[in-house]
Design a protein that fits this description.
GO terms for molecular function: G protein-coupled receptor activity. With about 400 residues, the protein is mainly alpha-helical. It has a single domain, classed as Rhopdopsin 7-helix transmembrane proteins, CATH 1.20.1070.10. It contains ten helices and four strands, in the order H-H-H-H-H-E-E-H-E-E-H-H-H-H. The protein has helices at about 1-80, 85-115, 125-155, 160-165, 170-185, 215-245, 270-280, 305-340, 350-375, 375-385; strands at about 195-200, 205, 255-260, 260-265. It has a two-stranded antiparallel sheet with strand order 1-2. Helix 8 runs antiparallel to helix 9 (about 350-375). The longest helix is centred in the first third of the chain and has 79 residues, at about 1-80. The termini are far apart.
Length: about 400
């Protein structure tokens, strides 16, 4: 019995030793299978990441090139052509120069972070400076477009006051006020720890949007929304003013009778005023123009004639399209920011967030395209300054009527 017992004990011990060996082999084979699967999927993930980075770099490089070329050309045109030295174009010049600086300073750092594997390769101080400049230019565009909307309404509804007061000094004062307000909005987060930081999902240094309990974040975003909303309210008011005055009937229906440029009759007042403004007036000043100095040249007229009215409408349309483009291109990113503010721990889809960030970048290159597209005067002056852009035109032959 003893040898049989010893044999059974040895067989049991051998079985106990073989079972762990089988378990170890199974776990080892499972690990090797996982490793092989990971090794097979890793190159595809790396290819996807490299393709996405290349696409981001190419698109951002295209945006930066269009912005630099378009805004620099528009700025040179506005500086070179003396006929464009007017109030609306002073604001457009400031807007173009700001976009040039934003494209030349902020975008290369974003490209460097993409090339570094979605990481910030520089110091924390440089990240704060870049984030401060990005926020500064965003608020600068918002404040400037609001001030332009107010001046557009004044040019249509109160043209006498506008043409008298909106000179170079006034425009420079408005521009300085806009930059001061922009700095006041963008500078305080510099002293707060963690508000200006590198956000890996956005691949840029920007304002870190927090939950609603952080009051600075909510106020920061509400101010931008209020400015953009108020700008559209002013444009709607201007549109209502134009629509209401379009329905007005002419003040004088009966033509006046002229004797040596001295008018009398039911339409005498309006006809005399029109001819007096045009430089054909002789005799006393018409009653409707008492207190208005006769212009030495057409640029100093105090009344809004039809051509000037059409020009002001074209400029207003151009600026409204710039404002609308600003709203459309920044709306996805602002929506993502509000989602982070009001929903704790929310994760915005990466594809949506990347598209929203790149749309906000594209706003810097959209302004010159919109300006040339919706402003006939700018296109004419561009052709005059760059004759090579002119196409061959067939000369018109004189003709006679038999």
């Amino acid at each position: 019995m003893e040898p049989a017992a010893e044999g059974a004990a040895e067989s049991l011990q051998q079985q106990q030793q073989v079972q762990p060996c089988h378990m170890m082999r199974a776990s080892f084979c499972h690990k090797m299978a996982n490793t092989s699967e990971f090794g097979e999927s890793s190159p595809s993930l790396q290819n996807y990441a490299s393709t996405a980075s290349a696409l981001k770099l190419a698109s951002l490089g295209l945006i930066m090139g269009i912005s630099l070329l378009g805004n620099a050309s528009l700025s040179l045109l506005l500086l070179k052509d003396s006929s464009l030295h007017k109030a609306p174009y002073y604001f457009l010049l400031d807007l173009s120069l700001a976009d040039v600086v934003r494209s030349a300073v902020c975008f290369p750092f974003v490209m460097a972070s993409i090339g570094g594997g979605s990481a910030w390769p520089y110091s924390a101080l440089s990240c704060k400076i870049v984030a401060f400049m990005s926020v500064l230019f965003c608020f600068h565009v918002a404040f400037l477009l609001f001030c332009v909307s107010v001046t557009r309404y004044m040019a249509i509804a109160h043209h006498r006051f506008y043409s008298k007061r909106m000179n170079l000094c006034t425009c420079m004062s408005v521009i300085c006020m806009v930059w001061t307000l922009s700095v006041a909005m963008a500078f305080p987060p510099v002293f707060d720890v963690g508000t200006y930081t590198f956000i890996r999902e956005e691949e840029q240094c920007i304002f870190e949007h927090r939950y609603v309990k952080a009051n600075d974040t909510l106020g920061f975003m509400l101010m931008l929304a209020v400015i953009v909303g108020t700008t559209h309210v002013v444009y709607i008011k201007m549109l209502c003013f134009v629509y209401d005055h379009r329905k007005m009937k002419p003040a004088q229906l009966v033509p006046a009778i002229s004797q040596n440029w001295t008018f009398h009759g039911p339409g005498a007042t309006g006809q005399a005023a029109a001819n007096w403004i045009a430089g054909f007036g002789r005799g006393p000043t018409p009653p409707t123009l008492v207190g208005i100095r006769q212009a030495s040249h057409p640029g100093n007229r105090r009344l809004l004639v039809l051509d000037e009215f059409k020009m002001e409408k074209r400029i207003g349309k151009m600026y409204y399209m710039i404002t609308l483009a600003f709203l459309v291109l920044w709306a996805p990113y602002i929506s993502a920011c509000y989602l982070r503010i009001f929903v704790r721990g929310v994760s915005v889809p990466q594809l949506y967030l990347s598209a929203a960030v790149w749309m906000s970048f594209a706003q810097a290159g959209a302004n010159p395209i919109i300006s040339f597209m919706f402003n006939k005067e700018l296109r004419m002056r561009l052709r005059a300054c760059f004759p090579c852009c002119l196409g061959t035109q067939t000369p018109m032959e004189p003709y006679c009527v038999i």
